[in-house]
Amino acid sequence: MKAAFLSGPGIIEIGDCSRPKMGPEDLLIKIKRVCICGSDNHIYNNTEIAKSKVKLPFILGHECSGEVIEFGNEVKGFKKGDRVAVEPSSFCGKCPYCLTGRYNLCDNYGFLAAPPDTHGAFREIISHNYRNCYKLTENMTYKQGALVEPVSIVVQAFNISGFNINDDVLIHGAGPIGLMTLMLLKTMGAGNCLITDINDFKLKTAEKLGADFTLNPMRNRLNDIVSDITKGRFFPLIFDTVGIQKTLNDSIFLAGKNATIVIIGISDEKASFDIVDIISKMLVIKGTTDFVNCFPKAIRLISDKKINADAVVTDSYNFSDINEAFINMNKNGKTIKTVINFDNI
Ligand SMILES: [Zn+2]
Ligand SMILES: [Zn+2]
To answer: Which ligand is nearest to the CA of 110?
Structure first.
C-alpha cells in the first residue's frame, strides 16, 4: 500500500509501506480524506524538528476520516463500511489524568503523526482503537469527517473558556482554528467578535463568516479600536490561536478585569510579559491541548450546520499531488485549509 513520506525538510515522497497490524480492539480504516494541519506544515518546513525530533522517513497527517474495512474481535459497535472520523489520540485509561477525565494529559499519551516515530494518516490504511473512532452522520461528507479534529480543538478551547452570552471576544489569528472559534462563538451567542491576522485574504474570509470587526496589526493599532468595540470595558475573553510574543502581549494589555485568555496556538518563540497587568487585572491565562470527549460534540455541530467547517477549506488535492499541496500551502498566502483526497490512489 502507498504512503506519503516526509524524507527531509520540505521533501515529501510517495512510496510503499506495509499494511498496519490490527489489535483486538482496532479498526482497520481505509483513509478517505486527510486535512493538512499547521503542525504537519511546521514539521514539514522546520529543518531542526524534521532532522532532530522526527525519525525520517516519517508519515504526517492526523486530521482524517475513512471507511472501516476490518475490525478486531473485541471491537463493539462497528461494522465494515462504517464511515468514521478518527480521534488521533491514544491514552492508557489508568493514569491519574485518565482516571479523572483528562485523557489529553495522559502519562502515556500518543497521537497520530507524533514525533519521533508514530506514523500518521497520509497512507492508504491505518489501524486505530475503536474507542477513538466516531461514526459520521448520514448527511456528513468524508471531508467534513476530516474536519472534526480541528473543530474538536475549538470545542475543547471553548469548553474551558468560561464564555458568557454576549461576551465581546478577541481572536488572534484567522487560520482554520481562529475561523472555527469565531463560528462557534457566534453560534453560542457571542457579542462583538474582533479577529486579527496579518493576512488580508484570511481577514476577508473572517468577515464572510461573521466577524464583526477585523484588524491587520501591520496596518492598524489594536488599541485605537478596542475601546469602541467593547464600550470601554476591554475584552472579557480572548482566544490566541497564534501564540507569539506580540499576540500574548496584546492579549494581556487588551484583556478586561478578571478576563480569560485561552492560548491554543503554538510557536517556537519564548515570550516575556507584564506580570503587573496579570496580577492587577486578575487575569486567567489558560493553555489548552487537543480534546477530551469533544468528537461527538464536533460531529453534531457540523452535522446540524451550527459550524460551517467546509468554509475554511480553500484547497483540495489528490493524494498523488500531496507534494504540490504542501508547496502551494507555503507560497500563495491564500491557503487556509488543504484537504487531501484519497479516492483515486
Ligand atoms: Zn491538527
Ligand atoms: Zn493515562
So the answer is: 2
83 Cα to the center of ligand 2, angstroms: 27
14 lies in the same domain as 71? yes
Count of structural domains, the chain = 2
Tell me the CA–centroid distance for residue 51 and ligand 2, in Å: 29
Give the strand pairing for 213-215 and 193-196. parallel
107: CA distance to ligand 2 center in Å?
5
Q: How confident is the model at residue 229 (pLDDT cuts 50, 70, 90)?
A: very high
**Which ligand does the CA of 146 lie closest to?**
1
The answer to the question of residue 191 being in a domain is yes
Domain that holds residue 45: 2-150+291-341
From the CA of 227, how far away is ligand 1's center (Å)? 34
- Over residues 207-221, the pLDDT tens digits come to 999 999 999 999 998
Return the C-alpha cell found at 293: 470527549
Of the listed ligands, the closest to the CA of 62 is: 1
**3 state SS of 74:** coil
Together in a domain, 41 and 143: yes
Measured in Å, residue 88 CA sits from the centre of ligand 2 at 15
Q: How far apart are CA 67 and CA 61, in angstroms?
A: 17
Structure confidence by residue, pLDDT tens digits, 138-168: 999 999 999 999 999 999 999 999 999 999 9
Q: What is the CATH number of the domain that holds 114?
A: 3.90.180.10
Residue 147 sits at φ, ψ, to 5 deg, of -90, -5
- CATH, residue 198: 3.40.50.720
Do 9 and 146 have their domain in common?
A: yes
Q: How far apart are CA 16 and CA 319, in angstroms?
A: 13
Q: What are phi and psi of 308, to 5 degrees?
A: -90, 75
CA of 149 to the centre of ligand 1 (A): 6
274 CA distance to ligand 1 middle (Å): 30
Cβ–Cβ contacts within 10 Å for residue 25, how many?
16
